[in-house]
Amino acid sequence: MDSNSSPPSTISIVSTFTSPFEDSPRANNSQSSTRKPLSLWPGMYHSPVTNALWETRSQIFEKLLDPPLDAPPQRELLNKTPSQSRTSVLYNFSSDYILREQYRDPWNEVRIGKLLEDLDALAGTISVKHCADIDSTTRPLYLITASVDKMMLKKPISVDVDLKIVGAVIWVGHSSIEIQLDVTQPPNGSVDSEESIALVANFIFVARDYKTGKAAPVNRLLPETDREKLLFGAAEGRNKLMKRKRTEGKKGIIENGEVNRLEALLAEGRIFCDMPALADRDSILLRDTRLENSLICQPQQRNIHGRIFGGFLMQVAFELAYSTAYVFAGVMPSFIEVDHVDFLRPVDVGDFLRFKSCVLYTECEHTDQPLINIEVVAHVTRPELKSSEVSNRFYFTFTVRPEAKAKINGFRIRKVVPATEEEARRILERMEADSMHSNF
């Protein structure tokens, strides 16, 4: 791809809905007859960001819609810099009131679920830009979201002030790519600074050969600036840590002397199961915190590969997690962070998807900000085959809004205890993962 076809450095985001107060019907598209068949287009479940990214990168995505499977794979890997994949999007909230309405939550802040969807869309576009081959005769790579690293909300994101997301590839392995996205919103009347950063997100994508489905090598990354080299080194360390954790497996909990913690958790749960009248009223069984949501995956929610868009799954999971925290705490929750997201297998159009959530554990040491840790697991269920497979795992952390907590005298968050050994292990594994991540 030559420099003349490069997209603008900043993509301005506009509303995708027409105003009900304006007469602005959609114009007929004179080029529609030359477009790809409708079945090859991505679904119409699009946020304004997804729509803008599609239009901007159509010259690359057009090839992905109908990949030439008989074409040879990329013959020679390219050397690319982070600046070549860097892309930013700008939400003109201050001037586009329809766009504001699409993103506004009840507290006049940005809906986090929609933001997660947009982050996934932007990360996907950046990964495609990095992997793009200048040779138009080769077949493209199939890029899949593998996981999302911890992302913490550093400050509330207003829907009245312009918002910007900037992202680039920061690390590349043999067939995996890490993209970092910075969400910034400067305080009113100030210029961009460290205080502007509202959230930082890291996405891992893996590349597969379109024809064979096997892991495929990706273009190399050559960091240039000191900051790019620092980000590359940090990502390399995270990658090695994840590989070591996968090698060690789940036996580490027992081997590391965690038997006593496991037994202590189970002992509390047994009181609830065997002697409920004597159980601690400030605790609750994990199974009593569960919520569930089910849906049939529709064509409107598919991505350019015909699979269900990962950002849509993240949005559904977040909103179920939010509801779970709300019902558990009894007051309006406040989002703090996405602890981790695993995309274990793709989800197809027509799949029966079940999202199951629970409160895994709580942290009440700091009474000013009690923490509620939520797990959401997505299952692809096939009733005709009597099978159910885990497709995604999501972990979120919430607290409660101070103004909501202030209205209730003696407000407390209950402790969650397991009823089974499997639940106890899940709690300890998540605690250990959070501890390792925060200490890295």
UniProtKB/TrEMBL annotation:
Residues 1-21 have a biased composition (Low complexity). This is Esterase. Residues 26-36 have a biased composition (Polar residues). GO terms for molecular function: fatty acyl-CoA hydrolase activity. The lineage of its organism: Eukaryota, Viridiplantae, Streptophyta, Embryophyta, Tracheophyta. CDD domains: BFIT_BACH. Gene3D superfamilies: Hotdog Thioesterase. One of its GO terms (biological process) is acyl-CoA metabolic process. Residues 89-211, 287-404 form the HotDog ACOT-type domain. PROSITE patterns: HOTDOG_ACOT. It comes from Lithospermum erythrorhizon. Residues 1-38 are annotated as: Disordered. It comes from the Eukaryota. InterPro entries: HOTDOG_ACOT, HotDog_dom_sf. Belongs to the acyl coenzyme A hydrolase family. Keywords: Hydrolase, Repeat, Transit peptide.
